[in-house]
Design goal:
80% helix, mainly alpha
Length: 539
């Protein structure tokens, strides 16, 4: 039986590692924005190239490693040797797959870049291709990090996998600082693609790849700490890819679908590259959107996923329903507040990245607001997907993802007809609307599978949270206006320290008033959330 205290401690430890890594990730984004800007040819070329290894890795190797190889690692620990021999075979196989894929993708860098960013003019496309040659080797190291980290997790050494991304961010930030010292900063993105020299390209993209490599290679040290020694083993018979591959095929298909949607999205948004919000802005706004999801939803849902899996294995569907309801209501209690705070603080948030241009602040801020409108639905969807996985069903998530991808592709293609300054905002709106529709469909399908998901109680809780957040939003908007966050030259958008101070003040006021409203409304979920915290404080 799962121990709640153990889950709580593990979730807190994982969440703290994620939080530190995300904070440093935002520091890296801020430094990157100050070095090459958020607008302009060079910023968008680098954004496309640096995302390319993630895109190819997910579609080619990510699904195989996560859904096929990794489950075998856990089973291997039951062997007489603790799984050491089996793990060596598995890791060797994974590294061969990754090496071949990475070499092939790097050789095809011009083709891949042209497919992803065809609207770029020739100079910008050439720069993106040069960046891609430096960035695509990240694929190998992302895969190495995944495999080595999952082996550590299977051996109950959770810390390294969560915390070593901090090293990645430190190395990348150091590389950006070196670039700034050698070649000067360009915070408004005025440097054209033709102004980049091979040395500039190597320092900027090479340091990004070096960070990913450091994040992966250091895990070998933690292997030694738990008594594992890697020795290449090319005897792969009996690794068990056949059965596991068939089980993972739907998950792999889902990854392909989302990647296709991402390619269409990048092709359309790069039409606006130059003086308008484009690929770099979408990437930054999405990372801001993902922050509360990564820290809150993933931590809570991971704990509940284990419990749901146990109950599903025992065919206790009534308890699975209870788990889904509790996870949704507990997560959205905080996510509703997080979404409201980010939406109200969108302009100061944007000013952290481009404090010298209010028009760019508006452009980034509008994209943030459009994305954050779908944050609650996105987090609910994450929990519903995990419920299907706990039931051993990867087929149904494929179909409701297909539904969402179809909506995204149609909507994003329609955004190509918008004025260029609104393309990025339009794409964010399309992603939000399609995500809400996908969540509704997933809820209906899960309700049929479980013969109910405690829907009435979930809806009552969501309505209660939304009513409770009305006053905090009004107070936040009033405070934002007083701080000058909606006009050029205002305190809240006049510099990085001012923007951070304004966001902190707005967040504190909104959080205090939100929880006060929930107390007045006697929200039972608030008591459930506060009881463990108060008990720990009393102890």
């Amino acid at each position: 039986m799962l121990k709640t205290d153990g889950i709580g401690r593990a979730s807190l430890f994982l969440a703290s590692g994620t939080m530190v890594s995300r904070i440093l990730g935002f520091v890296k984004l801020i430094v990157l924005a100050r070095v090459i800007g958020q607008y302009g040819q060079s910023a968008d070329a680098f954004a496309v190239a640096n995302q390319l290894p993630n895109t190819v890795y997910v579609i080619v190797a990510g699904g195989v490693l996560t859904a096929v190889l990794v489950p075998q690692i856990v089973r291997a620990t039951l062997h007489d040797d603790g799984g050491t021999g089996y793990i060596n075979k598995l890791v060797t196989l994974a590294l061969v797959i990754l090496a071949v894929t990475t070499i092939g993708a790097t050789l095809l860098a011009p083709v891949l870049t042209a497919v992803i960013a065809s609207p770029f003019p020739p100079d910008q496309l050439a720069l993106a291709t040069a960046f891609a040659f430096w960035c695509l080797p990240q694929m190998f190291f992302y895969g190495l990090y995944t495999v080595l980290g999952e082996v550590l997790n299977a051996r109950r050494s959770f810390g390294p996998f969560t915390w070593v991304p901090v090293l990645n961010n430190v190395v990348a930030i150091a590389g950006l600082i070196v670039f700034s010292l050698l070649f000067d900063a360009d915070p408004l993105g005025q440097r054209g693609a033709q102004d980049f020299t091979p040395a500039m390209t190597g320092v900027l993209a090479g340091s990004a790849t070096l960070g990913v490599a450091a994040q992966a290679v250091i895990l070998f040290y933690f292997w030694r700490r738990i008594g594992l020694r890697y020795r290449p083993d090319f005897q792969w018979r009996g690794v068990g890819l056949g059965t596991a591959g068939r089980l993972a095929s739907w998950t792999f298909g889902m990854l392909v679908l989302t990647t296709v949607a991402g390619i269409v999205e990048t092709n359309v948004v790069t039409r606006a590259s130059g003086d308008n919000a484009s690929a770099a802005v979408l990437s930054t706004a999405w990372l801001i959107f993902m922050l509360p999801h990564s820290v809150i939803t993933v931590s809570v849902a991971t704990a509940y996923f284990t419990r749901m899996s146990e109950h599903a294995a025992q065919d206790k569907l009534d308890l699975v329903r209870t788990d889904v309801s509790s996870a949704v209501r507990g997560t959205t209690l905080l996510i509703v507040l997080a979404a409201a705070v980010i939406a109200v603080s969108a302009y100061p948030f944007a000013a952290v990245f481009v404090p010298d241009s209010f028009s760019q602040v508006q452009g980034i801020g509008n994209v943030i607001v459009a994305y954050v409108a779908g944050l609650v639905a996105f987090c609910i969807l994450f929990i519903l997907q995990r419920a299907f996985y706990a039931l051993g069903d990867t087929r149904t998530p494929f179909f409701f993802t297909l539904f969402q991808v179809a909506l995204v592709i149609v909507g994003v293609l329609a955004c190509a007809f918008l004025p260029e300054e609104w393309i990025a905002v339009g794409i964010a709106v399309v992603v939000t609307v399609s995500g809400i529709a996908q969540t509704a469909l997933a809820a209906v399908l899960l309700r049929r599978r479980l013969d109910g998901i405690d829907g009435a109680r979930i809806i009552r809780s969501l309505v209660k949270y939304l009513v409770a957040v009305i006053v905090p939003v009004a107070l936040g908007l009033a405070l934002l206006s007083l701080l000058g966050g909606t006009r050029a030259g205002g305190f809240a958008v006049s510099g990085i320290p001012q923007a951070i101070a304004s966001m902190a003040l707005i967040g504190l006021v909104m959080a205090a008033s939100y929880f006060a409203m929930l107390v007045v409304m006697r929200a039972a979920e608030l008591s459930t959330f506060l009881e463990p915290l108060l008990a720990r404080i009393r102890r």
